[in-house]
Amino acid sequence: MQWSVATGYEDSYGRVLVSVVDIARFLTAGFVPASQLKDSEEHYRRLFETMSQGVIYQEADGQISSVNPAAERILGITQDQALGKTSMDPRWHMICENGKEVPGTEHPSMLALQRGETIGPVVRGVFRPDLNRHVWLRITAIPLFNPDETRPYQSYATFEDITAAREAGQERQEAAKRAAAQRRAIAELAVGATAAEGDLLQNLQHITEVVSATLGIERAS
Description:
Elements lengths: L1 E3 L3 E3 L7 H12 L4 H17 L3 E6 L4 E4 L1 H7 L3 H4 L25 H8 L3 E10 L4 E12 L9 E8 L1 H33 L4 H16 L6
Antiparallel strand pairs: 1-2, 3-4, 3-7, 5-6, 6-7
Helix pairs in contact: 1-2, 6-7
């Protein structure tokens, strides 16, 4: 990809990204001086390159034509590794939150191209070989149309890494389950001790059984 004042922000196909094109048309229609147009183009180029969300553009045939640095960082890939690839590439191993694999034809960007409508935000897992694990992304995919055309010629997806937040939420759920199990064990101890009041040996046996069961300890026969 390259940036030039004359053409805007071009992808690997030599196509100007639509957001910059629209802005340029708007500015030139208002007879904005070339210096201001250049400043606006530079502003949006910096935004694309420095934003924290990942951005990937895909052509109508599904081929990736542009990625920003955040996308490279989040997905653990380089631009050269991404360009020309499609959603059908097995490297993505995209999954739903329930662990079910998502076919390439059902990736958010592909659905946006097929349906001509915005998809998401949805949560999907994408495999990172360098980490040997999935990372979780919140993804929104948007189709782009040429004037007077009903089928999109391109789509772009924006996404953010929510892996840490998702795992923290799961840990809170597990902690809540453990706390509930402990409360049930304590309540059972109290009930058992009351029912067996007056029989110290029976109390001790009951307490030992409950504690052993809670901690997963096998009693010696």
